[in-house]
Amino acid sequence: MSDGAPTLFEWAGGGPALRGLIDAFYDRVERDELLAPFFPGGVHEDHRAHVTAWWCEVFGGPGRYTAELGGYESMLAHHRGLAITPEQRFRFASLMSLAADDAGLPDDPEFRSAFVAYVEWGTRLAMHNSQPDADVFEHAPVPRWGWGEAPPFEG
User: Is residue 98's pLDDT more than 50?
Assistant: First the structure.
């Protein structure tokens, strides 16, 4: 980053830390009565790896999701037609926050504020895009999330 602050990807601990987050999250999803039906047979390795690549890119890490996995258009395609309900969106966001604890991601308020802001933004966009006949942006870059109003506190 131009101001010298680490990216969220770096602050979180890089790819291994975000993979831990995604595994903790999908382990919870597989046990959840509201979200497990989206993944009959469980959440497979390819899906976990692809979502990890997405999160790495969004948080300022390598651009592998865009370069190798189809970028924004691919993520949009995965959510189309799912008809995600507000209750499912909220459960997703809640389980993601719990998974951050499970995975031992940094718990400083600045990081968690940026983390939760992305989860809220992303889940609301995914819910909108999943609705039948949703008016969606067909082409967009993968978002690059940052610190927002609260950069990391380094005392």
Answer: yes
